[in-house]
Amino acid sequence: MSSIRTLGAATAVLLLASACSGAGGGGGGENSVNVLMVNNPQMQDLQKLTADNFTKDTGIKVNFTVLPENDVRDKISQDFSSQAGQYDVATISNYETPMFAKNGWLAPMDDFVSKDSGFDQADILEPIRQSLTAADGKVYAQPFYGESSFLMYRKDIFEAKGVTLPEKPTWQQVADAAAKVATPEVRGICLRGQPGWGQVMAPLTTVVNTFGGTWFTKDWQAQVNAPEFKEATKFYVDLVRNHGEAGAPQAGFAECLNNMTQGKVAMWYDATVAAGLLEAADSPIKGKLGFTQAPVVKTDSSGWLYTWAFGIQKASKKQDNAWKFISWASGKGYEELVGKNLGWSKLPDGKRSSTYQRPEYKQSSGSFSAMAEAAIKGAKPLNPGVQERPAPGIQFVGIPEFTDLGTQVSQQISSAIAGAVTVDDALNNGQGLAEKVAAKYKGQ
């Protein structure tokens, strides 16, 4: 989560300039489709390739409107909630999809899929497909790319210290390793500490899950200051305070990426997409990395799950054109187009089983592709912990209120990492916030 978002921020101005043909969103003629997208590098590639490929082949003109994440989320919510129909297609994540579907804002895709033999819905990785399926059993979005989380570490540093990690470590093993490999120049691990429901709360919630905690029980009892949630949070805060990066309370994905790239930390637990950046041709640590599955305690797996996907607005009068665009952008042929024209390292991966069988992709992705595939396949969006949940989600709770709840609790956690408050006080404050949210759902 937040990984691609951070990378995309730097390209906002360029993308907005390139989106002028569809800046208004509406209109565009009968044989067209209006697409509202988040601004990240993969979407920029999509824009570059659309006219000369999709439009050339189908005759359908695509009018893109591309905005920074916070802006695009607001605009999508406004247009889809009002069913204004200004945009036919929009990028939504597995956080929004079930909620938008429940509200009747999205067109189901099952009929389109059944008539499109070339799309191959069965090739979509099961956890990704499941996360874009609503409670009614229908599919409401198709993924453009996906990610989970895993642990990345410097093999050379570990070898020099005589320290090893299993392929599926426990969090205690990771903490022990962080203490052993740390030096005054190189910290043991980087963990996000920056406030935000998609920053510190993303990795921390996966830790909470595997320690046996949850935000809410199935019957909406708030559990933010329960023993398991508290134990996990204390572990996380202690680990980052004792062996984590400098400036941890302000560190998010971008800061940890820089720390890892510059050799300032020996380990990093974060999004699987980070591996491609660390193993890029111009990375100073290319070839020096090892990878393990997300550390666990009480669960078999603990990696998160996130995907940017395309949904069709129910009010759209161009649903056939919308599906044709989505089928192309989410399909196997598009991946091949990117690989051959832009390089296999730029593939929007993490969504299809077939991607991980491509020899060209395997060669480009080096040692991490199999681990990333396993992380995504092992993700359990409906059952990420040791107890049943009232809403889907691994690193988030799939309810509208979580954006505000998660952000407010994250501010308390960041303060605890900074040493300004105790974990007990932070979680007691968070419990009060969670109880207010839970009260809205009890008895439903």
UniProtKB/TrEMBL annotation:
Lineage top rank: taxon: Bacteria
UniProt cross-references to CDD domains, sorted A to Z: PBP2_TMBP_like
TM region(s), chain numbering: none
PROSITE patterns hit by this protein: PROKAR_LIPOPROTEIN
Signal peptide: 1-23
Short name of one Pfam family: SBP_bac_1
Record keywords, A-Z: Signal
Cross-referenced PANTHER family: ARABINOSE-BINDING PROTEIN-RELATED, DIACETYLCHITOBIOSE BINDING PROTEIN DASA
Protein name, as recorded: Sorbitol/mannitol transport system substrate-binding protein
Source organism per UniProt: Lentzea flaviverrucosa
